[in-house]
Amino acid sequence: RARLLLSVGLLASAGAVFVAGMSTQAGFQASLDREKELRRWDVDVRLADIDQFSAVALTNLVAEIPNVTRVEGWSILQTSVIPPGQQISVTRTYPDQGHDSIAVTVIPPDSSLITPPPLLEGRWLLPDETGAVVISQAVRAATLSSIRSGDTIQLTLGGDPTSWLVVGIAESVGGHGGGIFITEEGFGAATGRSQPNVLRIVTDNHDEETRMAVATAAERTLTDTGIVVRSAASVSRSEAASAGHMLPLILVYLGLSVAMGVVGFAGLASTMSTNVLERTREFGVMSAIGAPASTVRRLVVLEGIFIAVVSCVIAVIPALLLTAVMIEYLPLPVNLPFQISVPGVVIWVVVVVLGAALATLAPAYRASRLTIREALTYL
Q1: ∠ CA(340), CA(341), CA(346), 5° rounding?
Q2: d(CA 332, CA 99)
Q3: Distance in angstroms (rounded) separating the CA atoms of residues 45 and 130
Q4: pLDDT for residue 50
Q5: Which of 198, 257, 279, 370 could pair with 74 in a Cys bridge, judged by C-beta atoms 3.0 to 4.6 Å apart?
Q6: Per-range mean pLDDT, top range of 135-149, 306-320, 360-374
Q7: CB atoms within 10 A of CB 200
Q8: How far is C-alpha 194 from the chain's CA centre?
Q9: pLDDT band at 96 (very low <50, low <70, confident <90, very high)
Q10: Contacts of 85 (CB under 8 A, 6+ apart)
């Protein structure tokens, strides 16, 4: 029984880790797909701080590029939060000052490139509203856990503290920019500035070749005009970067499950070998009454497969719990939907059944080769 429990436990643990890793990957892919649906532009052009060009001049300049159908000027600025009762702003970020930082996205009043993300509390911003913000769930969880819709927060914009009324809490959906949203009117009223630092471009053909051509042409056109371009790239690059952040973690889980599975199969082979040795008399009696070798082999292999199937059944609840824990506590800027990877489940069931069959072939062959004389010798 101890050997049986050990084999089943190892295989069940490996299955739970594998399915949880695949399910987390499936949830992340679903999040990327939703991000693609919400993102309606094709090229992002990020500019240095410029004052000599108006937003209209910038958009008109880029709009003349072939294959461009629409251009909008946005602003995305790094910010920090001033906790209630304090006068010093606090920002949690990595040393590169980019990852895990908080940014404010300034939405143009006539924008057609944004679909408001699902709201958990409150409402979305009105076009010309001032002094109001919508914050994402990720920002609230990181720095403003006690904030609710209707509360007031303080943010630093351009080094100056500003006060804002939180009118809504939105789900954390990538693709829009920062985790705090304000209107262009509100940004101008708070800072006295309205100059965009991001151009979002829509192309007529949404394929990658057109996107890259437009990005290159936009960078060249703006640079020739004297504008410093920090980056100009297809939105596919950010999608690939997001996937690249998730891939190492998934590979760790899959590698762990493979290692545990190998140990489990080795334990299963050892268990079945020991079972064959302890049941020498049983197999000897079967041979004595005329059981063919194929029947004995099939019996041992089916017992191994049965153990594998039992491990799959036992792994169901741990896989669900581990998937929920990974989705809840992974340090990601977006909320992952909870879903179980059906391909992952199918792959693991097939692998564990085939692996169990292969692991028991040697013990099954040994059992089928037992003679009546060997059984009597064992006695």
Answers
A1: 120
A2: 10
A3: 26
A4: 67
A5: 198
A6: 306-320
A7: 25
A8: 34
A9: very low
A10: none
Q: Residue 67 — left, alpha, or beta (φ > 0 → left; ψ -120 to 50 → alpha)?
A: left
Structure tokens at 271: 């268990």
Cα dist from 318 to 7, 17, 196, 313, 355, whole Å: 16, 8, 49, 10, 21
**Residue 364 CB neighbours (<10 A):** 25
- Cβ burial of 233 (10 Å; 0-12, 13-18, 19+) is middle
| pTM for the whole structure | 0.67
Instruction: Give residue for tokens 């930082």.
Output: 101
β-strands 132-136, 160-170 pairing: parallel
Which has more pLDDT, 362 or 309?
309
> What is the predicted pLDDT for the residue at 97?
47
Which among 266, 352, 358 is positioned nearest to 17, based on CA atoms?
A: 352
Task: Tell me the C-alpha distance between 113 and 73, whole Å.
Answer: 11
Helix axes 342-359, 2-38, angle to 10 degrees: 150
What is the C-alpha to C-alpha distance for residues 18 and 3, in angstroms, rounded to an integer? 23
pLDDT of residue 243: 62
